[in-house]
Amino acid sequence: MAWSFFGGIRPKEHKEYTCDFPIRDFPEPDILVVPLFQHIGVPCQPLVKKGDLVTVGQKIGDGDGLCVPVHAPVSGKVRAVEMRAHTCGANRMSVVIENDHQKTLCGTVVPRTREEVEALSPQELIGLIRQAGIVGMGGAAFPTYAKLSSGLGKVDTLIINACECEPYITADDRLCREMPEDIIAGAKVIMKILGLSKAHIAVESNKPQAIRALNAFLSREDGLQVDVLPAKYPQGAEKQLIQAVTGRQVPSGGLPAAVGCAVFNAATCKAICDGVYRGLPLIGRVVTVSGDIVMAPKNLMVPIGTSFNDLLEAVGHGEDPYKVLSGGPMMGIAQYDLSVPVVKGTNAVTILGHGNDLGADHPQCIRCGKCIRACPMKLMPVLMYQALRSGDVERMRRSHMMDCIECGCCAYTCPGCLPLVLGFRSGKHKIREAAAAAKSR
Ligand code: SF4
Ligand code: SF4
User: What pLDDT does 319 receive?
Assistant: First the structure.
């Protein structure tokens, strides 16, 4: 049974730009910039230095704590290990690789047979997933091995998230249509680790081809079922998805495991299949490169470390972009330096024209309450914004700003054009800083 969630919006989808075009391999660039920070947690330390030769899939960074390794996406020579621009907005330590275009594979990239995988224990599988550098690929980039470890013994329901509710983005839709068996194989690895016999693959009703493709393979599989959910934003947000599939509500500040659930993105399942069966670490991903001024929007299989500039050149645009986002128009982060590289969490590059400039030179709240009706977290964005403007961190905290999932529904509906999400991001940062300062006193 499909439940629903409070609030949400139905923005124009714009998925028709790319949804019917198959995934194409992006030609490997001559230079790749691979950040050592591509996940939530502790950044990697470099394992290579300037002048070293590297091979495809070779580990080039790793670390302790909440950390997953990064790997070379191409073979070639390390030109530098230095600070470079990153999609997070700051400069980050990165390995710059000069591609020799030889595609020399690392000796650690060794496929496994179905029998070999079946013989592995849950802990061994979690170890392989860590070694493959896999993170949540819907944008969150939380280390997958850590999510699996923390779910052991606590989860009774697995949800594979193939909703992809953000406008413009169709990368997961194409993966489901073109590689359903990989997604299902990855999901079955997760089921084995968590000791589950059943799982849901959640897809929005606006993706009939993806639903058909998955169902065609599922007829031969046990325990997995496709749940077709109404197309509504943010259907793919973790808490909203859990409520839509199971009717359970994750408590404020809680994790999905608190209600017995675990959610993994469809692209993450594909990466698990690659890592476990093909021995191939996470060195590339499907990226939707689209937007209202893009001449030839595409879904591209892109090596990690490819610059946004290269992608913009590949699709072309009719006018100077007003905004280039890492991600979609609702949750994406505006990029000001297009030399930034594609990282593991980059599901889309969205290029928007000046028609998206709403011309709000003087944003002003007119107290219409639309943001409150739109918020899927049942928050009061207008009051949160007042708390933010006051600069009073305690007032921000009391407004439940930390429960904001940054979905952008409030900003989308706001006739006063207030920069709500941007404000809440900075407010959450201030609350975290204040909490850390209080802890260290
Ligand atoms: S961005 Fe935050 S406050 Fe705004 S609608 Fe989404 S969850 Fe609510
Ligand atoms: S939608 Fe915008 S203008 Fe309306 S109450 Fe919320 S913040 Fe104010």
Answer: 86
Q: How far is residue 110 CA from its own chain's centroid?
A: 27
* Ordered DSSP codes for 174-218: HHHHH-HHHHHHHHHHHHHHHT-S-EEEEEETT-HHHHHHHHHHH
Question: Domain extents for the chain?
Answer: 113-277, 370-435
β-pairing, 298-303 vs 45-46, is: unpaired
CA–CA separation, 35 and 19 (whole Å): 30
The per-residue pLDDT for 2 is 59
CATH number for the region 113-277 comes to: 3.40.50.11540
Helix (H, G, I), strand (E, B) or coil at 273: helix
pLDDT bin (cut points 50, 70, 90) of residue 1 is: low
- Closest atom of ligand 2 to 370 CA is 1
Q: What is the pLDDT of residue 358?
A: 59
| CA pair distance 253, 163, nearest whole angstrom | 23
pTM: 0.93
Give yes or no for residue 408 CB within 6 A of ligand 1. yes
Residue to probe by mutation, ligand 1, list 232, 235, 333, 375, most atoms within 8 Å of CB: 375
Among 9, 364, 367, the mutation site with the greatest number of ligand 2 atoms within 8 A of its Cβ is 367
Sequence letter at residue 154: K
Indicate which residue's Cα is closest to atom 3 of ligand 2. Answer: 365
Interval between CA 336 and ligand 2 midpoint (Å): 28
Mean pLDDT of 365-379: 94
Cα separation, 37 vs 45, whole angstroms: 9
- pLDDT score at 355: 79
**Secondary structure of residue 294 in the 3-state scheme:** strand
Condensed to tens digits (0 to 9), the pLDDT of residues 295-327 reads 999 999 999 999 999 999 999 988 899 999 999
Which of the ligands is closest to the CA of residue 417? 2
Q: What residues have CB less than 8 Å from 100, skipping those under 6 apart?
A: 74, 75, 76, 77
Cβ–Cβ < 8 Å for 137, 267 = yes
